[in-house]
Amino acid sequence: MRDKGIVVTTEEDMAQVEVQCFIESCQNCSAKSLCIGQNQSKGLLTVRNPLRAYPGDEVEIEIPDTKYSRALILLFGSLLVASLLGIALGSLLSPLLPFTSSVSSLLGLLFALIIAGIVLFRYFRAKNKASLYPVIINIMKKGEGQG
Amino acid sequence: MELVAIFISAILINNFVLYYFLGICPFLGVSKKIDSAFSMGLAVTFVMTITAVVSWVINHWILIPHELDYLKIVSFILVIASLVQLVEMFIRKISPPLYQALGIYLPLITTNCAIMGLALLAALRDYGFAETVIFGFASGLGFTLAIIIMAGIREQLDLADVPEPLKGPAIALIVAGIMALAFMGFVGMIK
Fold first, then answer.
1. Is B39 in contact with A29 (Cβ distance < 8 A)?
2. Strand boundaries in chain B, DSSP class E
3. Which of A45, A69, A91 is the closest to B36 by Cβ?
4. Most A CBs within 10 Å, among B30, B45, B46, to test the A interface
5. Complex ipTM more than 0.90, yes or no
6. Model-level pTM greater than 0.90?
7. Is B39's CB within 8 Å of A73's CB?
8. Same domain? A12 vs A60
9. Which stretches within B58-168 are classed as H helix?
10. Residue A146 lies in a domain
11. Is the domain of A49 the same as that of A70?
């Protein structure tokens, strides 16, 4: 998915891009304000800036929506599997623990969610940090004063 | 045997989307592509499973013993909102770009009436702990099944010659209606 915007600020390899709307179909969405702010129809996106665009440049950005779907499947899939395993394990181990079946299932769920949370935290921090940001793929028009 | 019946019933017979018509907002809003529909289905299944567990705990350990049944709806709303807020905070912490990209996606889960319907139905039917977990998980799977089938049909519809007045939400609603009729064929599967 692609969108257009104007670079507002840059910092190292990243830039803040002001987009009119996150995606074109958002223009007619009644919940637009929840995504891109109450008072204005503009939103600021943090994007990767491999083309070294400068503030004022009009740019085209690529939004990696397939990567978002995969990341969400991984995220919620892992949390779901961990929850079910935790509940099942807690229930199975309840005869060995001084709790009722429901309490040990709850403890199992809590324990599994904490472990899954830590694993996901480390995974996303290590591997996906940069690649999930939208990226500037084209500088359509240079800003004033940059030739 | 009863757990199996609850499981199959929640997926096919009493499907939250196609039988109760709950959760229609994400069902229509995030069913244009199969992969995004699948990720939405997983997110809803996770939130449904956890909501089922937490609402059971609140209902059986706090509300019923203290005769506070009338606070059921308020407390379930609080539980669901808190859970989704926690998930949102977690995503914000582990992956800021993903959080930035989600936009309306997570509030769609919060305001999804299927989640609230699940908590209330489980309380109404007076399920035990294991039954509630199975019911929550299977209801989520039912939602995922419905949204994936819908996404598959809508992907095909993009290539079809749909009359101009029916394009968009109109044809989506007609498809949803036909799907609901088709799923009625499962009624009577479990007696």
1. no
2. none
3. A69
4. B46
5. no
6. no
7. yes
8. yes
9. 72-94, 96-102, 105-110, 113-124, 129-157
10. no
11. no
